[in-house]
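re the bet — no i am not wrong, look at it urself. input seq straight from the record:
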Amino acid sequence: MADWTNRVEGNWNQFSGKVKEQWGKLTDDDLTQINGNRQQLEGRIQELYGTDHDTAKRQVDEWYQNQA
């Protein structure tokens, strides 16, 4: 989680476009509100895509690993 905080939260403007490519239902307002917060991103994915917490967490983990 610390790596996420340093890498994603610190560079959210860069990552937000990639996040929106992955989860197209996220709006610009969603991305502004999430502001790099992983828990908020996972929660919003759950809401928009009707997934459970574990699925949203796994999707974010997989996406993050592919950003390296």
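see?? The chain has a mean pLDDT of 93. told u. also Helices lie at 2-7, 12-22, 28-34, 38-49, 53-65. so pay up
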